[in-house]
Design goal:
single chain; about 220 residues; alpha+beta; Jelly Rolls; Arc Repressor Mutant, subunit A; 2 domains; 4-stranded antiparallel beta sheet; 8 helices; about 40% helix; globular
């Protein structure tokens, strides 16, 4: 294990391991290691054996699939404080997506086989994990609703509001990933993203300065999202 005290506290606050007792957490921690991805470096590919699940400490991990046309579809952008690939260990045992470091990224790798063995022998822990994973599932369902029931403009505005740091003055969002990646994540074309930003700017609801977007009227944007 090559994790420092801050890493361990960050990991312990993640939704999945928050269900564990101190002794259970220590047992999982004994099978955890930190690793670093360079920008663009692959972590695993679709179809690879799901030997580990992961927790992001810093940076961003892109989860994606390739369409038959060869087009990349971004499924998620995993930021610090979140797990990914945890469901694969309870399913087919293979990763259903590709994972790449979008920028320099530090993460924790946790042993899936050991974790499943720990869960299999503990009914109480199973129930605690089901509760945590059910809460996570409801959050994902809400996100699917946003991507299927909302217009392109509503998706873009919702994304900006979600990225807005608490207490930021002036309210502003720095786009940490390329716009075409954001567009793919929102299920729209890059041209649509550019048009929406241009319209919001024309209405003076936002100002765009390179990768920084200032939200001039947060409440008005919330009403539109």
């Amino acid at each position: 294990m090559n994790l420092n005290a801050a890493d361990i506290q960050h990991l312990k606050g993640g939704y999945l391991l928050a269900a564990l007792s101190d002794s259970e957490f220590d047992e999982v921690l004994a099978h955890a290691n930190a690793r670093t991805l360079a920008p663009g470096e692959g972590l695993f590919d679709q179809g690879d054996p799901a030997t580990h699940f992961f927790f992001v400490l810093s940076g961003i991990v892109k989860l994606c699939r390739m369409a038959p046309s060869g087009e990349e579809k971004v499924m998620d952008l995993v930021r610090p404080g979140f797990f990914f690939a945890e469901a694969a260990m309870f399913m087919s045992g293979r990763y259903p997506i590709n994972a790449r470091g979008l920028e320099a990224t530090r993460l924790v790798s946790l042993d899936s086989k050991h974790f499943v063995g720990l869960v299999r022998g503990n009914g109480d822990l199973c129930l605690r994990l089901l509760s945590k994973m059910s809460q996570r599932m409801h959050g994902l369902i809400n996100e699917i609703d946003k991507l299927t029931l909302h217009s392109g403009a509503e998706r873009v505005i919702g994304y900006l509001l979600e990225q807005l740091p608490e207490g930021a003055a002036p309210p502003s969002v720095r786009l940490l990933v390329p716009k075409h990646v954001i567009a793919s994540r929102l299920g729209i074309q890059p041209e649509t993203l550019s048009r929406v930003l241009a319209k919001l700017r024309a209405k003076q609801l936002i100002d765009v300065h390179d990768d920084m977007i200032v939200l001039n009227d947060v409440e008005a944007l919330r009403r539109l999202s």
